[in-house]
Recover the amino acids of this structure.
């Protein structure tokens, strides 16, 4: 499943399917100059608001994208219930820097960061061989409560990453924003750094992945139920503290090696500074019928 989702942007975000969030070019920018107070970035999926320049705080209502240059927010960014924030564009030196928190509310989607290896930028002119990238920076925490999905690549979070609940249910049906490109609902955190903890709990969705993260403290995954048997993929992370996995539908420290099915699998073990606990103690099976282990997860 992860191999399909890694190329999701290449397959879908072509700029020709639908306007707005999928458009390659910027629409009218909201607040390009330096502003204080709170800026509202609002629009629809066909005509989103565009965030650029420097702002005190930002509230996203409806659809908002960062595709017209750098956007800097001195305080928090709040993605309102049911809204979409897309900051995965590489043209025009587009990037999102938030010095406070990013707060993703119920039913909302946050799409932050892009790079050629993991998730091509939405506006990359060559999707077959992407070259663009956009770095997302969050000074404090990235917190989501009952979101539909959180998809983050090429990023740095100074504090904690916390995702609680949401996900659209234990199924792989396209829902909400994901219907635009007929994708199952998922959350992914790939190729980035987190200064504090990563804590993900009670997410009911199709698929989830954590890959190539440097985590300054502990990773906890608790009571997450995923419909895809290939989830949760926890791959090649460097974790300073503990790795704790309890009550999840399944955990893997390997990725699928073929085009179909769970097996064969390619081991991508994690580096853990302290203890592995629960489901993430022994490496996951690499062949059908194998037990876990004997190596570390």
């Amino acid at each position: 499943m992860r191999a399909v989702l890694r190329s999701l942007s290449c397959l879908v975000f072509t700029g020709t399917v639908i306007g707005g969030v999928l458009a390659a070019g910027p629409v009218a920018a909201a607040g390009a100059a330096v502003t204080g107070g709170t800026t509202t970035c609002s629009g629809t999926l066909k005509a989103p608001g565009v965030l650029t320049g420097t702002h005190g705080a930002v509230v996203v209502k409806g659809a908002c994208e960062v595709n017209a240059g750098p956007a800097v927010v001195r305080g928090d960014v709040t993605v309102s219930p049911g809204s979409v924030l897309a900051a995965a564009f590489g043209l025009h030196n587009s990037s999102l820097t938030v010095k406070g928190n990013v707060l993703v509310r119920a039913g909302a989607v946050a799409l932050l960061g892009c790079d050629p290896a993991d998730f091509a930028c939405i506006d990359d002119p060559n999707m077959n061989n992407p070259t663009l990238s956009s770095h997302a920076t969050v000074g404090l925490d990235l917190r989501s409560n009952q979101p539909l999905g959180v998809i983050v690549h090429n990023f740095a979070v100074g504090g904690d990453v916390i995702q609680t609940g949401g996900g659209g249910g234990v199924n792989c049906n396209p829902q909400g924003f994901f219907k635009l490109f007929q994708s199952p609902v998922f959350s992914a955190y790939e190729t980035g750094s987190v200064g504090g903890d990563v804590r993900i709990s009670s997410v009911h969705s199709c698929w989830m992945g954590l890959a190539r993260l440097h985590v300054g403290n502990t990773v906890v995954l608790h009571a997450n139920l995923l419909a895809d048997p290939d989830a949760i993929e926890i791959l090649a992370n460097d974790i300073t503290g503990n790795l704790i996995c309890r009550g999840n539908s399944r955990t893997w420290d390997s990725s699928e090696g073929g085009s179909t099915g769970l097996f064969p699998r390619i081991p991508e073990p994690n580096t853990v500074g302290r203890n592995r606990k629960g489901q993430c103690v022994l490496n996951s099976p690499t062949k059908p019928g194998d037990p876990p282990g004997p190596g570390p997860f």
Summary: The chain has one domain: 2-25+39-278. The CA atoms of residues 148 and 167 lie 4 Å apart.
